[in-house]
Design a protein that fits this description.
By secondary structure, the chain is an alpha/beta fold. Helix content is 33%, strand content 19%. The chain contains 17 helices and 18 strands. A 6-stranded mixed β-sheet has the order 3-2-1-4-5-6. A 6-stranded mixed β-sheet has the order 15-14-13-16-17-18, sandwiched between helices. Strand 9 and strand 10 form a beta hairpin. It is found in: Secreted. GO terms for molecular function: calcium ion binding. It comes from Jaculus jaculus (Lesser Egyptian jerboa).
């Protein structure tokens, strides 16, 4: 961030009702130091009580009166979030402070969960886009994100916050009362002591900020004291910050510099992980997967092939934001499959009160095409007709017309049902029929999913074919279980050819293995008999 900016964040945090009144009479004039794109992400979950939310509303109103708001000056956007994200107004919506205040005063809290990671993702990809009013990156206008929250996120924030920071967004994390300090530190930009703020209650934010009222926006913080920066110092919204010369990056102490991590500075293309090594880098794969010849991608399930059909619950109980998490989860499954016409084929069916084939087994030949199609799936809502979905899968999804391979090829057929509640129709007939048809069934339940139904849908043993997560944001732990079961090299058909058991050479192989096992068993029995006879002789001698 370059050039002096308006107020340090602590100054921005004190504009509540008492100070709002002061600003109308004797407060400092709006700052005109330079343009800024400023987005506020406000927690409006159910844990924020009505009077606390009102205090937060006054905070925003008072803050606006301290800024030189305008299309060529400071642009302001406001987002509120709970289990979903709502844009109160984007950066380019208003150029007059009065219009912003009117929108803030009309704000109604969402009063649901606390999906902070989802809110940061929205801010990064949508709120700071040029379509929403952010200025082009070429203009080098600082982009600042202020997250105000009172609780622990119900989703992951570290990874998405790191992505936002890598895109040049400076993040301030403000925690109130019950906020989780670890999550605040995971969100904020370095140095953390200038970007993480924690106060005991909403009422105390005003007292917390009073000590910073005298800091004017034109102050050059770098000249006020010894900043100890190794390379250079720059005045920013939060005070003095150290910067490094080209080709270097700032260390966690906020002052020292080192040669830049190349993985963060280049489009390395590593599928899993990039590791810098001096002036070069290399790609790594997760345990159990090997790096391919291109030096970037990791091998996938290649020991065998399956026809995989995913049945995804799109009922109204899932809710739109959770349905997006389900699609992300489905794509994580696709990531460990060798998707190709000759390898693993994937089809997707969504069900609610009706059933809709989103794409059949034979449509897409690459993982990238499948993942793109998954992201394009639109949420259906309405009821939960799981039995109808199972019937559709048995009668249509695994037909050759839909892209399933002929039974004579003995390619395993796998069905994975994903649901969050009790079915509104009978599932027993078609769950049994699926298994009679040779389809290996997996059931993944979330939230209020019924265990008895999951077990009825799944193949035996249930312990290997049923997975459960208490909520949508915690589904990632199911991936390892599913990989070990669905991935052919670790589960179905592991390391074996798919041959008819009636073929001559298969029978010979079976007989050879059986005879070998019987010979080994006979040797062990002979050893046991010999030991028993020896014991009998010892007993006889003692008598």
């Amino acid at each position: 961030m370059k050039g002096p900016l308006c107020w340090s964040l602590p100054v921005l945090l004190v504009f509540f009702q008492p100070w709002e009144t002061q600003l109308q009479s004797a407060g400092p004039p709006p700052c005109t130091a330079g343009p800024l794109d400023l987005v506020f992400v406000i927690d409006s979950s159910r844990s924020v009580r009505p009077f606390e939310f009102e205090t937060m509303r006054q905070f925003l109103v008072g803050l606006l009166r301290s800024l030189d708001v305008g299309l060529n000056a400071t642009r302001v956007g406001v987002i509120q979030y709970s289990s979903q994200v709502q844009s109160v107004f984007p950066l380019g919506a208003f150029s007059r402070r009065e219009d912003m205040e009117r929108a803030i005063r009309a704000l109604v809290p969402l009063a649901q969960g606390t999906m902070t990671g989802l809110a940061i993702q929205y801010a990064m990809t949508v709120a700071f886009s040029e379509a929403e009013g952010a200025r082009p990156r070429a203009q080098r206008v600082p982009r600042v994100l202020v997250v105000v929250t009172d609780g622990r996120p119900q989703d992951r924030v570290a990874e998405v916050a790191a992505q936002a920071r890598s895109r040049g967004i400076e993040i301030y994390a403000v925690g109130v009362q019950r906020a989780d300090v670890g999550s605040l530190r995971a969100m904020a930009s370095p140095p953390l002591d200038q970007h993480v703020f924690l106060v005991e209650s909403f009422d105390l934010i005003q007292d917390f900020g009073l000590q910073f009222q005298g800091r004017l926006c034109a102050i050059d913080y770098c000249t006020l004291g010894n900043h100890s920066c190794q390379h250079m110092c720059v005045s920013t919204l939060g005070g003095p910050q150290c910067r490094c010369r080209a080709g270097h990056e700032l260390l966690p102490d906020g002052r020292s510099c080192r040669v830049r991590d190349l993985c963060n500075g280049v489009d390395h293309g590593c599928e899993f992980q990039c590791v810098s090594e001096g002036f070069s880098y290399r790609c790594l794969c997760p345990e159990g997967r090997r790096l391919q010849a291109d030096g970037k991608s990791c091998d996938r399930c290649r020991e065998g092939h399956v026809d995989l059909v995913l049945l995804v619950d799109g009922s109204k109980s899932v809710r739109p934001q959770n349905f997006e998490l389900v699609k992300r989860f489905v794509n994580q499954i696709v990531d460990f499959l060798d998707v190709s016409p000759e390898g693993t084929r994937v089809g997707l069916v969504q069900f609610s009160s009706r059933v809709r084939t989103e794409f059949p087994l034979g449509r897409y030949g690459t993982a990238a095409e499948v993942k793109q199609a998954v992201l394009a799936v639109e949420y259906m809502e309405r009821g939960t007709m799981t039995g109808l979905a199972l019937r559709h899968m048995v009668e249509h999804s695994f037909s050759e017309a839909q892209g399933a391979r002929p039974r004579a090829l003995h390619v395993p057929r796998v069905g994975l049902v994903f649901t969050d509640g009790r079915s509104q129709d009978d599932i027993s007939v078609w769950a049994a029929r699926a298994k009679e048809e040779g389809i290996v069934m997996y059931a993944v339940g979330v939230g209020k999913a019924v265990e008895e139904e999951l077990r009825e849908i799944a193949s035996e043993p249930a312990e290997m074919h049923v997975s459960y997560s208490p909520d949508f944001s915690a589904m990632s732990h199911l991936l390892d279980n599913l990989k070990g079961s669905i991935c052919p090299e670790e589960g179905i058909g592991a390391g074996t050819e798919l041959r008819s058991p009636c073929e001559c050479e298969s029978l010979v192989e079976f007989q050879g293995r059986t005879l070998g096992a019987l010979e080994s068993l006979a040797q062990k029995l002979a050893q046991v008999t010999e030991r028993l006879e020896d014991l009998e002789r010892q007993l006889a001698n003692q008598q």
